[in-house]
Amino acid sequence: MVAQDSATVAVRxxxxxxxxxxxxxxxxxxxxxxxxxxxxxxELPVVEDRARRDELPxxxxxxxxxxxxxxxxxxxxxxIADAALALxxxxxxxxxxIDFDRLYAADLGARREYLTQQWLxxxxxxxxxxxxxRPTVRTLRATPERRAFTALAALLAAGIEVEPExxxxxxxxxSTTLGTVTVIGAAVIDHTYRTDHIPTAxxxxxxxxxxxxxxxKGLNRAVAVARLGFQVRLIAAVGDDPAGxxxxxxxxxxxxxxxxVKIVPGESTPVAAVIxxxxxxxxxxxxxxxxxxxxxxxLNAPAARRAITEADAVLMTFxxxxxxxxxxxxxxxxxxxxxxxxxQPTPSISFPQYLYEYFGRIDYLxxxxxxxxxxxxxxxxxxxxxxxxxDIPEQLLTLGIETVCTVQGFECTVxxxxxxxxxxxxxxxxxxxxxxGARAAFMAALVHRLITRDRRADREAFRxxxxxxVATQSFGDIPGxxxxxxxxxRIARSPMDDDSGG
Length: 502
What we know:
Elements: H1 6-19, H2 28-33, H3 39-42, H4 45-54, H5 62-70, H6 75-85, H7 100-103, H8 108-117, H9 119-125, H10 137-140, H11 143-158, E1 180-184, E2 188-195, E3 208-215, H12 217-226, E4 231-239, H13 242-253, E5 256-257, E6 261-264, E7 271-277, E8 282-285, H14 296-300, H15 302-309, E9 313-317, H16 322-333, E10 340-344, E11 364-367, H17 369-373, H18 378-381, H19 392-398, E12 403-408, E13 411-416, E14 421-424, H20 438-453, H21 459-470, H22 485-492
Parallel strand pairs: 1-4, 1-9, 2-7, 4-5, 4-6, 9-10, 10-11, 11-12
Antiparallel strand pairs: 2-3, 7-8, 12-13, 13-14
């Protein structure tokens, strides 16, 4: 039974009224001329997100969104919703002998009649194994049709993306011509709360909306790199549950190799809570259960070891246990002239000093001021007697790191062992203060420049990586906001608020 909250009921009623006569076959034109109050449909977060992403009015994306979610329905509900709303889903893979002029006729009654007549072959065309008894037109328009509209409305109201079983890879993400990148991190389900402000214990309650999405810092970076044209392998772990299978399908659709994603039997895929305020600032509640994770044995498997040592670049976060972080660095340190290594030290770890002996292997350390500060002892980050704060990047350089990138608020400051400091200021295109996917896009864009140019990053490379951060401005799903090269190029050509850095 589908839970029927107020949003589900409102959207269901809109769909039912739109189904009369021509349905949604005319798309935006139908919505512009209808006398039905379609506000509940236009104000859905999933519609608003798609409109913002595609830079279109909400009424122009409704049909594509409804079609997308209708494809996720069970076969019977999908057929009923498809015919009742004249969505045209079956045109994409036409069954033999079906008359689309009748199935998607202008009159709802005619569509219902043809659906009942072709009940069995239509179900068989979808591969349905349990086919309900064929209804009459009279019985179809009662419980079955109402149930289908309710199921579709519930998916739309929740905004939960459920990937198809065998999606085709993105045509722009499966290229292997640029090189190979291995990402070590996590893949989780994000429970995202979009609020008017970040709530505090002693402050006013936050008002917002909830959405479930695919996420994880490792997954975000893998998708970001794949969209820039690289062959990507993700080393992570998921549970043996529907959420884990959903993550694997999503990664494959994005062109990410999932051979090294471990499936942990009998465990649920981790969930993280993400709170996003209207200005782009955010807070995250991670998962405390470490039952779903990779171990040293996984890293020592021949395929994983080759993925780490033979890649053109390795991207790593601190989402995995300390033993895995340490062992990965140990493996990379043993490889002469090995891959580029880019590390973001998030989430923070309790005893970072255990990793100091490996810091000389890190080519680029990338993080916010807070993330970088957490790598040093408290005594090293306190102000001196004159009130001056220590130079944290310089202290990290003394530990052997080649380049430290302080990335925050769509800006980047780079310190390197050659004493050169590069400041990349905010692009005028940045309307938010921050976005959750910014540093993932920065790492992906930077590794693009490192591999394709086969040399250390210069000012232009950091400028391009900073433009990639700006391209992630979105309140939609985080990996979905990762840009391709064209979008980064357009922002990189735009003016900056202040580009006076040295």
